[in-house]
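Same chain as my last thread, 325 residues:
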Amino acid sequence: MSVVQITNGFYRNQEVTGVFPVVAEMKEAKDGTHFITVDGSETEFGKEKMRVKVLPENVETVSEHRESDEQVMDRIAERFSILDEMTEATIDGVVRGMVVSGPPGIGKTYGVEQILEKDSLFDVMADNPLRHTFVKGTMSPIGLYAMLYKYSDAKNIVVLDDCDSILFDENALNILKAALDSGKKRMISWNSDSHFLRREGVPDRFEFKGSVIFITNLKFDNVRSTKIKDHLEAIMSRCHYLDLTLDTTRDKILRIKQIARDGGLFDTKGLSKDQEVDIVSFLEENQKRMREISLRMAQKLADLCKMAPANNRWKRLAETTCMKR
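reply #2:
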């Protein structure tokens, strides 16, 4: 069975991206549009036969045979191992800019946090200023500029996690592009008067020598908005771009299984192995009704299992609190 990667397609006016088994090869309609029929049963669409409208250049055959579950889990594990390696390289100053893309709740931030916290251990013990910072949520252009100045020294790392508002503000985008630039010197400027910057002692121009890790749910190469598309392409050309390739519900479930297989998913919950298996099976069997498929959801189910294990009472609680009606 052929498997294709669709980078931009439409099914019933909804955008379609990801990796899909092919049901029927691409065909051209009389009006010149192209369609490919794929199996979307393991996606949010839940359809075994989806006739997706595509441009030929947005469809690529990635395999003549569908990956086994073990192969997918190994692929996912390798991607996250690469994320760990790249994070280590930011600590060494070898990697100065990285964008990490993947859906919410699959552990993008956790691995980065663990590595940077380990690196900061001696600073914490010696009560030294921390060399790394995590910024989550909305970030204004002037706030981003001031933050980059504060952590502008070599070996400093700024992690911008779920700060996607930056991508939709041209001023913030230009500052981010300057910080991620691959040139020898990265000069960042603020060319308008600011009482805030003067009060904080931030100059209107400085050299940024640190590193930036930008963690996002957005797939930069799939963005259709012409307003920011060129900016995102410019960012990808300036730094390393790591897509964790968790595009389908199946991928997310296998990510959960991969963490459970390799250890670490339920380690702090005090559950038996049978209980752990039961939780993952429950999540998989009810995937179409779950509010989300994520590591966070698996943790929620584990909490319920620990709270009310008798007679599988936790499953009833899960139906009420974690599943759609």
